[in-house]
Design goal:
By secondary structure, the protein is mainly α. It has one domain (2-70, 91-107): Serine Threonine Protein Phosphatase 5, Tetratricopeptide repeat (Alpha Horseshoe). It is built from 6 helices and no strands. The chain has helices at residues 2-15, 19-32, 37-49, 53-66, 93-101, 103-107.
Length: 113
């Protein structure tokens, strides 16, 4: 129940662009469900968006270690089409690798991603 509440709060914060606050919530989710690689991915991406690239690197690396073939799995399409438009962009491993490659720049204060 707590995890579901935190997931709802996470979604609200991410939609409103409060990435630093979302990162704190996702950090708690990773403590509650340490085996969930998507929480590590979301934490890393939220930290990047919040300008904390140095901290994001360890979480994105952990995601890649926990789900090394995640980039090969395509998201399932809903059986019913949404009227609101196309689905949002999916996170690609190429983006994560770019963040990891550019991590040194972020750590030294150049966090323009």
């Amino acid at each position: 129940m707590v995890a579901r509440m935190l997931n709802n709060l996470k979604a609200t914060l991410l939609k409103s662009g409060h990435f630093a606050r979302a990162a704190r919530v996702i950090s708690r989710l990773t403590q509650l469900v340490p085996s969930d690689p998507t929480q590590r991915r979301d934490l890393g991406v939220s930290l990047v968006q919040a300008g904390e690239c140095g901290q994001a690197i360890k979480h994105l690396r952990a995601y890649l270690e926990m789900a090394p073939t995640a980039h090969e799995v395509k998201p399932k399409r809903p059986t019913q089409k949404k009227k609101s438009g196309p689905e949002g962009p999916t996170l690609r491993v190429e983006m994560i690798m770019s963040v990891l490659t550019l991590g040194a720049c972020c750590v030294f204060g150049k966090h323009e991603v």
